[in-house]
Amino acid sequence: MLVITAILLSVSVRAQFTISGSIYDATGKQPLSGASILLKENNQGAVSDDQGRFQLTGLNAGSYELLVKYIGFQDKIEKVELTSNVALTILLAEQIRVTDEVIVYATRANDKSPTTFSTVDKQTIQKQNFGQDLPFLLNWTPSLITTSDAGTGIGYTGMRIRGSDATRINVTINGIPYNDSESQGTYWVDIPDVASSTQSIQIQRGVGTSTNGGSAFGASVNLQTNTLAKDPYTELYASGGSFNSQRYTLKTGTGLINNHWAFDGKISKIKSNGYVDRASSDLDSYYFSGGYYGKKTMIKAITFGGKEQTYQSWYGVDAETMKIHRTTNYAGQYTDMNGVTKYYDNQVDNYRQDHYQLHFTHQFNENWSTSLAGHYTYGRGYYEEYQPSATLADYGLNNVVLKDTTITTTDLITRKWLDNKFYGTTYSLNYEKGKTHLTIGGAWNQYGHAKHYGEIIWAQYTSNAEIRHRYYNGESKKTDFNIYAKLNYEIGEFLNAYVDLQYRRVDYKSAGIEDGLVPYDINSTFNFFNPKAGLSYTLSEKDVLYSSYAVANREPNRTDYLDNEIKPKPERLGNLEFGWRRNTSHYKLETNYYLMNYKDQLVLTGKLDNVGNPIRANVGKSYRTGVEISGAVQLSAKWGLGINVTRSINRNQDYAYDQSDVTLKKNTAIILSPDWISGSQLTWSAFKNFQATWLSKFVSKQYLDNTQNNNLKLDPYFINDLRFSYHVYPKGIKDIGISFLLNNIFDVKYSSNGAVYGATPYYYPQAGRNFMAMLALKF
Predict the structure, then answer these.
(1) Which residues lie closer than 8 Å to 273 by C-beta, 6 or more apart?
(2) Cα(351)–Cα(309) distance, integer angstroms
(3) Of the candidate ranges 129-133, 184-188, 254-258, 666-670, the one whose mean pLDDT is the lowest
(4) What does the alpha-carbon distance between residue 369 and residue 279 come to, in Å, rounded to a whole number?
(5) Burial environment of residue 194 by CB neighbours within 10 A (0 to 12, 13 to 18, 19 or more)
(6) Is the pLDDT of residue 660 over 50?
(7) pLDDT digits (tens, 9 = 90+) for 614-634
(8) What are the boundaries of each domain within the chain?
(9) Which end of the chain is less crowded, N or C, counting CB atoms within 10 A of the terminal residue's CB?
(10) How many CB atoms lie within 10 A of CB 28?
(11) What CATH number does domain 224-778 carry, 2.40.170.20, 3.30.2380.10, 1.10.510.10, 1.20.1250.20?
């Protein structure tokens, strides 16, 4: 009996326990995602998830002190006597200090907003950030599809949300528009590793609450860069994997100095050979900020940007060639004098972009606050291209006469330049009292003196060309002004009304000689009124119903004017959203219905122009409608599941595919808009500080033009990834993290994007099975 007792006592002494819990604001209703929890005794830490939950495992019996921190809230120490598993509910009081969240207040939705949205926190971003561009980090959010020209997620990447491409997605960084003013696209390759400097990302599907930049015609993506870190820190990241992909990042910050000042910085280097032949990337980026934080005033200066050099891989590959060699890249291909096929070694895109932002926020009193920001972006660069057998006349060159021979063509190398500046200001005045939440704001932005020009830097036969002969030249200027008023008003205890009225004026001028020696002169002015209204009804503390209707108008982009014989019309969208959100301590669930009715939508035709830009055309009436279901559930202490499913119908009601009313097709599927999209994340926290996650993505068939031609389509694909992470907390180091990502574990051969040249489809193959490993050190 004594022996049995001794054994039981021994087991009891060696038993290990768990401290788990949830972090809320002082009301106990709002969970705080991203709060840090630190055990002072052994330096073990955790970060709360999007439900405010955390867990510390493998602890011996004893006395512990938990230090809980969250930006905008006062630190709290929680004492625990651990003799068995403990579950805590910790409430944090607000800090009396203006915080960075005010910067994005005007562009963000909340749980009572009648808007369909998802918010991705810093913890989730960091888990997936092995060096791929931002779209690939968001791949498992609802209704989102990613694609990569190089096939690896590094270099030129893109995303579509609800079938809408990047030109339809409004992107802001700290409330400042990021979309290129002329093309309306977003080029994440210009700001590589921006995820390392990002605090949170909110994706609003549909028109959303976007206030700055072009109207959202499919979704909005709002980034907030790093917020105040109270304590000094240094973080080092190194990752590497397939295709010689590498990423090196150094981050550091001072923490709060003298209770008022804070400075942060980051530099990154990313390289990859790419999956597609020669689709290499060499990317550099930086982020620096300095801020003053007072009780009522915050002033913060931010600069970030990057330089990219990527070997071109935007040509795609035809189906027959893919069967033989799926990584074929036609870029830079030419035949030498001996008839040997070669590839030009400097067929690169070379571009630099620098951003400067200055933010000022002030809290006048408990009801009134204001935000003001000024910004400046400078972008410049070119892409270089070998042009075999180019016609001399197309470049403004005379034919060359050699004795009895007249030479009309030549091999040559061109550089196509873009040099542009984007600057302006945004502002908002916020009022909160009782049941009323009012924001009045606006913006004035100018895309000024943007220069488009092409140079010949070498030619086999130079004819009458001078050094750096310019064969096309143009200049653009675009002014974008808007004012808006947003009102949230609580009607009674459960009903919340939302009204958003925006007036936007756009003046766009562009003139010159385009590629092909064709003159152009664009001078357009648009006046848009974009109203939004909605209701949300709180059924209980866990359940919210919402419905909204919004109107958005949008101007054509530069290539819409240049690539169409018929002058493009502005587009109009009416967006209905209806949904239900349920949020409990163990699971959350959201389901919504949407209807997006377009008039004169500029849809992709599936064709590309001579520089690889997608050609679009007005199609009269069209619509997107569907149901989105997303949720997450904690199955047990070790198992968690997140899942989302989208079922949609995307139709051109009347599509004139030769840009006339002669040839019409009724109710055809809109290009690159699948009927089904689904994603899931199954997480297993197997043992102390170890986590494994199985990530899956399914995308159904997509057509490559708007005629619903079954010979021009992308096949459906189902991709599975596996991610592992392990953390240790040695003395003197906050965290050592080791992560491993195995992509496309079943080696599926698939393409996520495509285009049509003539009647031939070209595809963008994505990488088969590949891996990345990462080491993270936090001090």
Answers:
(1) 243, 244, 245, 279, 280
(2) 7
(3) 666-670
(4) 49
(5) buried
(6) no
(7) 778 888 889 999 999 999 998
(8) 2-92, 224-778
(9) N
(10) 12
(11) 2.40.170.20
Q: Which residues contact 647 (CB under 8 A, 6 or more apart)?
A: 626, 627, 675, 676
pLDDT at 138 over 50: yes
Q: What is the pLDDT of residue 657?
A: 53
In this prediction, residues 596-613 reach a mean pLDDT of 78
Confidence (pLDDT) at 336: 86
- Return the structure tokens found at 321: 């060639």
Q: What amino acid occupies position 95?
A: Q
Q: Could you read off the pLDDT of 459-516 as tens digits, one per residue?
A: 988 888 888 899 999 999 999 999 999 999 999 889 999 999 999 999 999 999 988 8
Strand order in the sheet with 760-765: 317-318, 760-765, 751-757
Nearest-5° Cα angle at 346, 343 to 351: 140
Q: In Å, what is the CA distance from 395 to each residue of 474, 518, 564?
A: 15, 11, 22
Q: Rounded distance, CA 641 to CA 635, Å?
A: 7
Phi then psi for 207, rounded to 5 degrees?
-70, -40
Identify the H or E element spanning 55: strand 53-60
What is the CA 610 to chain-centroid distance, rounded?
A: 27
Return the SS3 of 715: coil
The CATH code of the domain at 2-92 is 2.60.40.10
Structure letter (DSSP) for residue 555:
-
Structure tokens at 74: 């006062």
**Position 700, amino acid:** S
- With a CB cutoff of 8 Å and minimum separation 6, the contacts of 617 are 564, 568, 602, 603, 605, 659
Is pLDDT above 50 for 124? yes
Beta strand extents in 563-620 (DSSP E only) = 571-583, 587-599, 602-608, 614-618
Strand 341-343 and strand 348-363: pairing?
Answer: unpaired
> Residue 10 — pLDDT band, cuts 50, 70, 90?
very low
- Predicted TM-score (pTM) of the model is 0.88
DSSP string, 441-480: EEEEEEEEEEEEEEEEEEESS-TT--TTEEEEEEEEEEEE
The fraction of the chain above a pLDDT of 70, given in percent, is: 94
CA 114, CA 536: separation in Å to the nearest integer?
A: 6
In this structure, the number of other CB atoms found within 10 A of the CB of residue 31 comes to 19
- Number of other residues whose CB lies within 10 A of the CB of residue 613: 19
86-92 and 16-25 beta bridge pairing: parallel
Q: How far is CA 54 from the centre of its chain?
A: 27
Residue 411, C-beta contacts closer than 8 angstroms, at least 6 positions apart: 334, 386, 387, 388, 389, 390, 459, 460
Render pLDDT for 674-715 as a digit per residue (tens, 0 to 9).
999 999 999 998 777 899 999 999 999 999 988 888 899 999
Give Cβ neighbours of residue 18 (< 8 Å, ≥ 6 apart): 55, 56, 57, 58, 59, 85, 86, 637
Can you tell me the distance from the alpha carbon of 469 to that of 464, in angstroms, rounded to the nearest whole number?
Answer: 9
The whole-angstrom separation of Cα 163 and Cα 650 is: 8
Return the structure tokens found at 621. 């009436």
CA distance 740 to 128: 10
As a whole number of angstroms, the distance between CA 751 and CA 441 comes to 43
Q: From the CA atom positions of the chain, what is the Rg in Å? A: 28
Question: Tokens for 707?
Answer: 């005629």
DSSP H or E stretch at residue 91: strand 86-92
- Tell me the pLDDT band of 1, cut-offs 50, 70 and 90: very low
Question: CB–CB of 305/286 below 8 Å?
Answer: yes
